[in-house]
Amino acid sequence: MPQEGLAVGIVRAYWTAMQTNDFYRAAECLAEDFVLDWPQSNERIRGRANFAALNSEYPANGPWRFTVHTIVGNDDEAVSDVSVTDGVQSARAITFSQVRAGLIVRQTEFWPEPYAAPANRAHLVESIS
Known about the structure:
Order of helices and strands: HHEEHEEEE
Helix content: 10-25%
Mean pLDDT: 95
Oligomer: single chain
Number of helices: 3
Low-confidence stretches: none
CATH topology: Nuclear Transport Factor 2, Chain: A
Shape: globular
Number of domains: 1
CATH class: Alpha Beta
Strand content: 35-45%
Structural class: alpha+beta
Radius of gyration: 16 Å
Number of strands: 6
């Protein structure tokens, strides 16, 4: 069995901490000068304190639940595919993480909007769910 890269283990620990909804605890997986980019909304979050505050203040209908579908990577980088829900809102995030000295230093995170499959290709595809 292949060994898991260092970054994969750190990102797995990060998502486990996120599951607690204690975002200051999750921020302990991040470097002090951590940077998170959300290209779709053209936002950058600098610093783990801002990360924890943003997640703590984000409006939610209940506790956030995180389902990790996949994490792949090596010692320095990992990519995770995670579903997120508060029981009302649901989304899926693809997160590219860079790790240095045992901490996540940078993330680029994509939150794609789901959409209905076009009818013109129904004869070529099947539903995932």
